[in-house]
Specification:
- The complex is a heterotetramer.
- By secondary structure, chain A is mostly helical.
- Chain A contains 4 helices and no strands.
- By secondary structure, chain B is mostly helical.
- The longest helix of chain B is centred in the middle third of the chain and has 32 residues, at 156-187.
- In chain D, α2 (36-47) packs across α3, α3 (52-60) packs across α4 (62-82) and α4 runs antiparallel to α7.
- Chain D is globular and about 55 Å long.
- At the B-D interface, α1, α4, α5, α6 and α8 of B face α1, α2, α4 and α7 of D.
Chain lengths: 94, 498, 124, 231
């Protein structure tokens, strides 16, 4: 029973993160939300008895994909409707 | 055993991994090795094709596990014919693009030839594999090579065309995965023959849904109507020879994958009419678009889409004659359209806009190239002494035998449209005055040889279509006999696992 | 876990994965920013992976890995095939995403924007 | 307007997807005995591999894996081609995150541990969860950590391309050597040993280790190429 509740809780969280990531105008936050989706997915895979897939999803989905997105955002723009504020990310981090 | 189908895949992969290493020592090797590999593949594939035409189908298993459990490669008259055709075109494109542009750096040149080789290997994999998920992997290999080749030039449009292609390709590969999920969840297998064997168990609703998802997944490579938005841009913005490779190799692989689904895997009664409808819509939309284009390669791209529509109509007739006609059309299209693309890319070599108006009067300055372009144009619209005539004739007779008057009428009307826009270009080449700011580019000797080979094949098939019709008849027989395919693949499975 | 709970779990996973696919498709089809489109595509990929894993799940399943002493306990193992397919699909999806993002960087170099409406030299 | 059309389209797609998977929970698939049982059976009895997923990925469907590492290789190559500029500055990377001393020291501490974990995961791929892909990606995340923490940390492109080429070549050669021994491509030709031993499963662990090296090199190179991209 707790098993099912846990999975449902994660599913709801995952769908919430998905909606957040497409609604959010700030691309950096959207990308982090995508990473969160991957993290939750990897937890669900573990619960569904797929440890191999969980490992891969954790490494690729959470770390590598997210970082490639972040590098792209650094090289381009940070906000969805912005045109030229490529320095935004750098100033935000400092 | 004359050869092994797995070498058609393994050798190019081996070469692709080797090229970066050898390229560090000997720079010319990055251009030569892919050619040698393609030549090896051509010889091996052609000898296997000769074998399977007279003997039985070659079925090779991977990792020693027989049909439903392991992945198997099927080299039948149909798949062998298509694989040989695609490898031959790959070789021609390699020969043509060997030092196509002089000022290309070492790194881009290396990548170009690796991708060209992998494009051919992926397309061959799509055709000869007997497993739907393996086919998905090969589709991805082909698509990634195609995206990279489309973005080869550093201009802004090529990146955009490639991005557009990638978006559609990525959506369609998702659809393909969903289709595979439906099939696996119901039938518990991924092998094509096993799926075909068990397909009657599946409820019709599931079948239709799965087939629609499959069409969304593969239609992008086969350029069927709503999914071909990428094609004109990719053909226009990719390097000249790559347009030929797309028309001759990628599209053929996509058509094969769809046809295999409709004829072998799914036994939905009305799917043939569905093919006819898709084909007719694609044909009409593409040909009406082609007549409006003012860029040469864009026009050729729309014409290519239109021809694929015609191929689907011919397959949709559903008889052995129709399949024969469709395969003949595919063969002709795979020879003629690359010739048009290759000679066309020299006609507009130095121009930025690649407009049709820029070919004015080139007939006097580039006589052989222009003649070859004209030959291709005459052949593709179906004028009598050339090869295109026989394939269009066989479509018409196949349709007439089934009493499909509408198809005959449409094919004839479309031929007239094709005549209009192709002759417009030929007319400009020969009867207009050349403007002064157009710089003529003489083709290199290897490019000339490549184009002359294609041109002579058009003439040979045109004067004696019987030399290919034996292979085509075998291939169409192979496609129509679903039961034989299933038995061929599965029977060795039962005998060897015990 | 009894049958009813198992069915609920199955529908939950199915619904969750399909919702994820639809949300991703919505983003990919309507958003104007190129990066948002690619985010949408990677969400679709995630949904499909969950769908495939969900197909392979069985009631009270255990991971398809044999531990010493339990070599014959295949009865409750989940289906390993979809897991193998998902492994392949994840890596391929990542490769395609990387190529897409590099194209985005190049498009930005030429156009200085990521708005899809502004990047329309070719007909869309 | 466009959004409405898209939503309608999605509703139709969603409906079809729901109905095509819904019956699975109630009635199960129409074919009850798929290929699954064969795999589970043969993995233990013939291949002597504990992890069924490893045996499927490397042996039963090994051709997919070969195609997949090719896809990765092509993507890494394509990335270099798409971002290619005539004069590109290797080595002077712009700083993504200016990292503090703690981050630097911590990364230095974690890096060997991550690499060790990755190596452990792919060496034991046939015994426990994990394998070439997983281990390779874990190693790549280790390199990613170092690249992010240290501005001047660099990976030799030449070494990476040696590793990925040699791993790929040996993968194909292992497959082909099965053929030369009168068996089929990628078929096991080595003694399989005992279940749950480190040296078991014939060529499966060897191939998975090669895959691990290749995936690690490929992904590290990919990240490094993108990270070196400057506006």
């Amino acid at each position: 029973m707790t098993y099912i509740i846990l999975i449902f809780f994660l599913l709801v969280l995952m769908v919430g993160a998905a909606i957040y990531s497409i609604v959010q105008k700030d691309l950096l936050y959207a990308v982090i939300a995508t990473g969160v989706i991957s993290l939750i997915l990897s937890a669900i895979f573990l619960l569904l008895q797929a440890p191999d897939v969980a490992l891969t999803e954790a490494a690729i989905g959470v770390a590598l994909t997210t970082i490639i997105f972040i590098i792209t955002i650094r090289n381009t723009v940070r906000h969805e409707d912005d045109f030229k504020d490529r320095n935004d990310l750098k100033s935000a981090i400092k | 055993m004359v050869g092994s189908p797995v070498l058609l895949i393994a050798i190019p992969l081996l070469a692709a991994f080797l090229i970066p290493l050898i390229g560090m020592i000997w720079k010319e090797s990055v251009r030569l090795i892919p050619g040698l590999v393609l030549a090896f593949m051509l010889v091996s594939s052609a000898s296997m094709l000769l074998y399977v035409t007279n003997n039985s189908t070659i079925i090779e298993t991977i990792a020693g596990w027989q049909a439903p459990w392991g992945i198997n490669l099927v080299f039948s008259p149909l798949t062998g014919f298509l694989a040989t055709l695609m490898i031959f075109l790959g070789f021609i494109v390699w020969l043509f693009s060997y030092r196509f542009k002089r000022n290309v750096d070492f790194e881009p040149a290396k990548k170009y030839f690796i991708f060209l080789m992998m494009l051919v290997a992926g397309a061959v994999g799509i055709v000869i594999t007997g497993d739907i998920f393996n086919q998905f992997v090969f589709i991805e290999i082909t698509s990634i090579s195609a995206y990279a080749l489309t973005a080869f030039y550093t201009g802004r449009n090529s990146a955009e065309a490639s991005f557009k292609y990638l978006l559609m390709g990525s959506l369609s590969s998702s659809a393909l995965l969903i289709a595979i999920a439906i099939i696996y969840s119901q039938l518990g297998t991924l092998n094509m023959a096993d799926i075909a064997d068990k397909m009657y168990l599946m409820p019709t609703g599931y079948k239709i849904t799965a087939l629609i998802f499959f069409f969304m997944g593969i239609g992008i490579e086969a350029e069927i109507f709503p999914l071909n938005g990428w094609a004109p841009d990719a053909y226009t913005e990719a390097p000249g020879p790559i347009g030929a490779a797309f028309a001759g190799i990628v599209v053929k692989a996509g058509v094969y994958a769809m046809i295999r689904l409709v004829f072998t895997l799914f036994d939905i009664p009305n799917s043939m009419q569905f093919l006819v409808v898709i084909g007719l819509v694609t044909l009409i939309v593409a040909e009406t678009s082609a007549i409006k284009q003012d860029k040469l390669k864009r026009m050729l791209a729309y014409s290519s889409i239109g021809q694929m529509g015609l191929v689907f109509v011919a397959f949709g007739i559903g008889t052995a004659e129709g399949v024969f006609a469709a395969l003949f059309l595919m063969l002709n299209h795979a020879i003629i359209k690359p010739l048009l693309f290759l000679s066309g890319s020299y006609l507009v070599f130095n121009s930025k806009e690649k407009k049709i108006s820029e070919v004015n009067g080139l007939g006097k300055h580039m006589p052989i190239t222009s003649l070859l372009f004209a030959l291709g144009a005459f052949a593709i619209v179906g004028l009598p002494p050339f090869s295109g005539f026989w394939s269009k004739l066989s479509v018409l007779t196949a349709a007439a035998n089934e009493g499909m008057i509408l198809i005959i009428a449409l094919v004839l009307i479309v031929s007239v449209v094709e005549i209009v826009y192709y002759f417009r270009v030929v007319n400009r080449i020969y009867f207009f005055e050349k403007s002064d700011n157009v710089v003529v580019q003489k083709p290199r000797i290897n490019a000339m040889i490549a184009m002359l080979i294609l041109g002579s094949i058009i003439l040979v098939i045109g004067f004696d279509p019987d030399i290919v019709s034996i292979y085509l008849h075998k291939a169409s027989h192979d496609l129509m006999n679903t039961r034989e395919y299933i038995d061929n693949v599965l029977s060795i499975g039962q005998s060897l696992t015990k | 876990m009894n049958n009813e709970l198992y069915e609920i779990l199955r529908y939950g996973i199915l619904g969750g994965s399909i919702l994820l696919i639809l949300i991703g498709l919505y983003a990919a089809l309507t958003k104007r920013s190129l990066i948002k489109i690619i985010i949408g595509l990677s969400i679709v990929d995630g949904g499909i992976h969950l769908l495939l894993i969900g197909i392979g799940y069985v009631k009270n399943g255990t991971a398809p890995i044999f531990s010493p002493g339990f070599e014959n306990s295949t009865a409750n193992m989940v289906d390993p095939v979809p897991q193998a397919l998902v492994l392949t699909a994840i890596v391929i999806g990542f490769a395609v995403t990387a190529v897409a993002l590099s194209l985005v960087i190049r498009l930005y170099r030429h156009h200085n924007t990521l708005e899809i409406d502004e990047i329309k030299n070719l007909k869309w | 307007m466009k959004k409405l059309i898209v939503i309608l389209l999605l509703a139709v797609t969603g409906y079809f997807m729901v109905i095509s998977f819904m019956d699975l929970g109630k009635d199960g698939p129409v074919v009850k005995n798929g290929v699954k049982d064969f795999y589970l059976d043969k993995t233990v009895s013939e291949l002597k591999v504990a992890n069924t997923i490893t045996s499927i990925v490397v042996n039963f469907r090994g051709f997919d894996t070969l195609g997949e590492v090719t896809v990765l290789f092509l993507a890494a190559t394509a990335l270099g081609g798409i971002l290619y500029k005539k004069r590109h500055h290797v080595g002077e990377r712009s700083v993504l995150f200016p990292s503090s001393t703690i981050v630097k020291a911590g990364s230095k501490l974690l890096f060997p541990a991550i690499i060790l974990l990755g190596v452990y995961v792919f060496v034991h791929g046939h015994l426990s969860p994990g394998g070439g892909f997983q281990g390779g990606t874990i190693i790549a995340t280790g390199f990613l950590l170092m690249l992010l923490a240290y501005d001047n940390f660099s990976v030799s492109h030449k070494v990476l391309s040696y590793i990925e080429s040699f791993a790929g070549i040996f993968f194909v050669l292992f497959g082909l050597s099965g053929m030369f021994m009168g068996k089929t491509f990628l078929e096991n030709f080595m003694p399989v040993g005992n279940l749950n031993d480190l040296f078991s499963g014939g060529i499966i662990p060897i191939i998975y280790i090669l895959v691990g090296f290749k995936v690690a090199a490929e992904l590290t190179g990919l990240i490094y190429t993108v990270l070196n991209e400057k506006e």
